[in-house]
Design brief:
Elements (H helix, E strand, L loop, with lengths): L14 E5 L4 E4 L5 E4 L5 E4 L5 E5 L9 E3 L6 E5 L4 E5 L5 E6 L8 E6 L5 E5 L4 E5 L5 E4 L15 E4 L4 E5 L3 E5 L5 E5 L8 E3 L2 E6 L2 E6 L4 E7 L3 E7 L2 E6 L2 E6 L1
Antiparallel strand pairs: 1-24, 2-3, 3-4, 4-5, 6-7, 7-8, 8-9, 10-11, 11-12, 12-13, 14-15, 15-16, 16-17, 18-19, 19-20, 20-21, 22-23, 23-24
Amino acid sequence: MCLFTLCSSFTSGSKTAIPFKGKFFTSDNLGNLFLVQNDNSIEKYDVNGNKLTEANFKIYGNLSQLDVSNPFEIYAYYYDQQTLLILDNLLSLRAEISLSDISTSEVSAAARSFDNGIWYFDASNMRLMKTDKSLEPQIEGVPMATWTSDDWIPQSILDNEKNIFVLDSSNGIALFDVFGNYYKTLDLKGLTDFQVKKNKVVYFKNDFLCQYDFKLFTTDTLQQDTQALHMRIEPNAAFTWKNDSLFINKK
């Protein structure tokens, strides 16, 4: 449970609602919203709720992860087809990469590296790997079985230029350095999404938007909403998904 220290930074700003009954949403550090609909189409909105563009690559199946950590180079991973698409800021296709070309086993998650390469997780060998866009190997991690008996099948990866965060909702978040060396696991289980703001992991769980400081080992509550399905924050806005609407609360 989070310690209750409610943050009211966004309670006095303007609020906009966008109709949304889809699968999930995410946001970038510019305040742009990306809504993934039930048909796997991707819609992009600005922080004022204006629709900017949309795209649908439904031939690849279900969209597993949408990495918008670089707003100008977006990575969309389709687990069913083991395919990573690289999109520009207008969601136009720039590259299609088949991860089955570099792994004969299951790639459970894939995302952007800080230098615009590719991090991916080889679930069969439980290893974090890195390649460039030409699929030339750069880093091959040590199998996680060397330090845990748990089975890791991560759902998402995030690189914040200092650490690589690997989320498995059953086991928590494993932290690696930029060379792919594991050094600890955060006991944050049951998550479907998370953000990293400096040395804090921001996540929504059980009606609470929380932040966990993985340097000081402290947890605080940023906001509570018993009707929220999911929440995220960016420097200029907070986003709350309730029922069939996604609310933008600008700072």
